[in-house]
Specification:
The complex is a heterodimer of chains A (305) and B (466). Chain A has 305 residues and is an alpha/beta fold. Chain A has helices at 8-17, 24-36, 50-61, 76-79, 85-95, 112-119, 129-135, 152-164, 195-200, 211-221, 227-242, 251-264, 271-277, 285-294; strands at 40-43, 64-69, 81-83, 125-127, 140-145, 166-169, 173-176, 182-187, 202-205. Chain A has 14 helices and nine strands. Chain A is elongated, with a radius of gyration of 26 Å. Classes of the chains: A alpha/beta (305), B alpha/beta (466).
Chain lengths: 305, 466
């Protein structure tokens, strides 16, 4: 069980040892989130490492990661808790006199109270991620991924949760959190989140990294790749990002490309190798054409074999 | 001991000058003045956070304030600008109050070696060393700026830059060891100019012992970049976000479960799991409403700078909406739908439009009346109550008849009509702008800032009620 970090520098070093190269503001916001106990809203284009940040934080702080993946139409039942109807129905049917065996003997005819107590017990409650985060005896890192996909009702429910950290279940009563989780919300900025939610959180904008930083990230994940190849890789990726593509390559794709090149034992990136491995970083048919003609031609031809 | 000076900065209350809490609150007020919604809870958060971070390091200080106060990329941009302005002014106000002044730089040295200075500055620009840049800026002002200043800061900055011979393009006529030979990075040059400006302002404040009025922020820096081609990247950034928004707005139109129909068969099937009791309701999937949009875009010279922007908006709309037909016009109208569907790259599309469209006639000035007539003739049968018509233009019709009755006919046939005007509302109806004639038949938006564009997108993608 790791202790609380004492400074922004400690958080930065910790995240690095967990495999995540954080920028200046990232470590600062993470530090504030831990110290102040406020949730963090992380926004940015797809693939810059928002989810990775949560995973790295959980590794660094030595806490379990509880993940809630949001989608359109997500409601309380799937996010908070749900009663296991089927099990309850079976229990009721097994408990009636013409049903099962002697096991249900003392329940027969004792009335509604007994049935109710029995049916609405903890064993029939299905815990969903938010509830898991709250009732957990150890502190956790709660990641609510892609919250911009949900609707306003869900956000309202979430707000209530994030401010009080307690759930009230009508049948069981109020359940309060024993520990304080570190909450991370990620968003792809596809819609404006409600003001109330933003007010509650600290804000962090993760953007595509600059050349040196991305080079460091690539080297961290593929240390065996040659320095020259890695540098050229990062420069090409930056050029590709400047083009007007449907989906610009993200950091995850740079890492994949580095691994692919390492696997192929590349000594240098020339135009044939680029054309062959281009589909690792570019994921649309139309984008492939644009990249091939704008960037591919700038690379040297392969030497005659 | 002279009595304390009157507060220089006008309307702020007379608190203990220079106390930190007061300064932070004044900063928040400043931000609110520029349109960033800062709530009291956020200021409290900022104070709380500063307790943990401390305010020794200026970068950490700025980041801490930003993370608790600026809650979106747009807000962050405004925050950065106001931060620069506020804390620069606060420091200067304090200096004037307490009578501190900078010793003039380089008086002991006498003559300057100008070439050496130029070389040093160019080197510092290549390396990007901030503190060096600041010192060198002071030296540069001492060398060039004294005496013949014009009083207008921007002009002085450019004059000094020219005297130093700093350019972004390579200058092959210089000797090979001169760092300016290969051209200087644009970003660094811009920052150096900022330093020059700041030092000039500082000298001015010292000389006059008063703060000049705040340079208003909202119009200049927040406007959508529609000037030189270098800012195309910025335009694309804005448009990329627009694309993302449009993509999901379409989803929202689809997902209204409340209005969906219950699919009885699927529900009964699902109820078998729960013993025949329909616990879970299954809904019939809703068909997405495919909006049909007609976009007319003015590409004449009066809107050249805006037309780049408009064409990229058009491009983004093509990505998001399937049934979109686009037209460009100056004196005549021409359909360019295929161009945008064929060309993925924006620059190629823009070039193709200007080449093939054939919309300019003799004079190259827009004739709205004629355009409406042609459009109506072309499209009359295809306009229906679920169609949307968007016009991108400034409604400057160069004295020709506006023909608003034809426009009214178009607007009545289509379901919704929007007008996007790249001029601020202040300029509407001045000169040859006849927007008032058209405004009564459509919804007009001024469209030269990001948030205005967002408002338009919201209006555009609101579900069509039939």
């Amino acid at each position: 069980m790791a202790e609380e970090p004492t400074s922004v520098q400690a958080v930065a070093t910790g995240l690095r040892s967990a495999g995540y190269l954080a920028g200046e503001s990232t470590s600062l916001v993470a530090y504030l989130a831990i110290k102040l106990g406020k949730p963090v809203l992380v926004e940015g284009p797809a693939g810059v490492g928002k989810t990775e940040l949560a995973k790295a934080l959980s590794r660094y702080l030595d806490r379990t990661l509880v993940r809630l993946q949001c989608y359109e139409g997500l409601d309380e039942a799937k996010a908070l808790y749900e009663w296991n109807y089927r099990k309850q129905l079976l229990r009721i049917q097994a408990g009636t006199p013409d049903g099962g065996g002697g096991g249900g003997g003392e329940k027969t005819g004792t009335g509604w109270e007994a049935v109710q107590e029995d049916i609405f017990g903890e064993e029939f409650l299905l815990e969903r991620p938010l509830m898991t985060a709250i009732v957990s005896p150890e502190p956790v890192v709660l990641l609510i991924d892609e919250i911009d996909k949900t609707d306003q009702e869900f956000e309202a429910m979430l707000l209530e949760l994030l401010s009080d950290f307690q759930i009230s279940i009508p049948e069981l009563g109020r359940i309060e959190a024993r520990t304080h989780p570190v909450v991370l919300l990620t968003s792809n900025n596809t819609r404006e989140l409600t003001e109330a939610l933003k007010r509650r959180c600290l804000y962090l904008w993760l953007d595509y990294p600059d050349l040196e930083h991305e080079l460091e990230i690539v080297r961290l994940h593929s240390p065996d790749l040659r320095e020259t190849v890695a540098r050229k890789l990062v420069e090409i990726i930056h050029q590709v990002r400047e083009l007007d593509l449907k989906k610009p390559p993200s950091i995850a794709e740079s890492i994949d490309w580095a691994r692919a090149l390492l696997l192929l034992g590349a000594e240098d990136i020339d135009s044939t190798l680029f054309r062959e491995t281009m589909s690792v970083i570019v994921k649309h048919r139309t984008d492939l054409d644009v990249v091939a003609e704008r960037v591919g031609v700038k690379l040297q031809q392969a030497p005659a074999a | 001991m002279p009595p304390p000076a009157k507060p220089i900065y006008g309307s702020l209350p007379d608190k203990t000058p220079g106390a930190f809490d007061g300064e932070l609150l004044a900063f928040a007020e400043d931000l609110r003045g520029e349109g960033v919604a800062v709530g009291t809870s956020e200021i409290l958060d900022a104070f709380e956070a500063l307790r943990h971070i401390g305010w020794g390091d200026s970068r950490d200080f700025r980041e801490t304030l930003a993370t608790t106060i600026a809650k979106s990329p747009d807000d962050r941009r405004v925050f950065d600008l106001v931060f620069e302005r506020f804390f620069f002014r606060a420091a200067e106000a304090q200096a004037v109050r307490t009578g501190v002044s900078e010793p003039p730089a380089g008086t002991a040295g006498g003559d300057f070696d100008l070439d050496e200075l130029r070389r040093q500055i160019a080197e510092a620009l290549q390396e990007g060393n901030e503190s060096e840049l600041r010192d060198l800026a002071r030296l540069a002002i001492a060398a060039f700026g004294r005496g013949d200043g014009s009083g207008v800061l921007g002009v002085d900055v450019q004059r000094i830059r020219r005297a130093l011979g700093l350019r972004t393009e390579p200058q092959p006529e210089l000797p090979p060891d001169d760092p300016r030979r290969d051209g200087l990075p644009r970003e660094q040059l811009r920052r150096f100019e900022q330093q020059l400006r700041r030092e000039l302002e500082r000298a001015l404040i010292e000389r006059t012992a008063a703060l000049p009025p705040k340079r208003p922020l909202s119009e200049l820096d927040r406007a959508l970049p529609n000037g030189p081609v270098q800012d195309l990247a910025a335009v694309h950034r804005v448009v990329a976000q627009l694309k993302r928004r449009l993509a999901t707005q379409g989803h929202e139109l689809r997902g209204r479960k409340r209005h969906a129909h219950v699919d009885v068969r699927a529900t009964m099937r699902a109820s078998l799991q729960t013993g025949g009791v329909p616990v879970e309701l299954k809904f019939r999937p809703q068909r997405p409403r495919r909006p049909e949009i007609f976009v007319l875009c003015d590409v004449s010279t009066s809107v050249t700078s805006a037309s780049t922007f408009f064409l990229s908006v058009l491009h983004a709309l093509h990505d998001a909406f399937r049934k979109l037909r686009s037209f460009v016009f100056i004196e005549r109208i021409s359909e360019v739908t295929e161009v945008f569907e064929r060309e993925r790259d924006f620059r190629a599309a823009a070039a193709a439009v200007s080449r093939d469209a054939g919309v300019a006639d003799v004079s190259g000035y827009t004739d709205y009346g004629r355009v409406w007539t042609e459009f109506l003739a072309m499209i009359e049968d295809e306009l229906h109550p679920r169609a949307t018509v968007i016009v991108l233009g400034d409604a400057r019709t160069n004295g020709r008849p506006p023909r608003e009755e034809v426009f009214a006919a178009i607007a009545s046939k289509a379901g919704r009509t929007f007008w996007l005007n790249p001029e601020p509302r202040l300029y509407w109806n001045y000169g040859d702008s006849v927007i008032a004639a058209y405004e009564q038949y459509c919804q007009a938006f001024e469209c030269w800032r990001t948030d205005q564009l967002e408002e338009f997108v919201k209006a555009l993608t609101k579900p069509v009620v039939t």
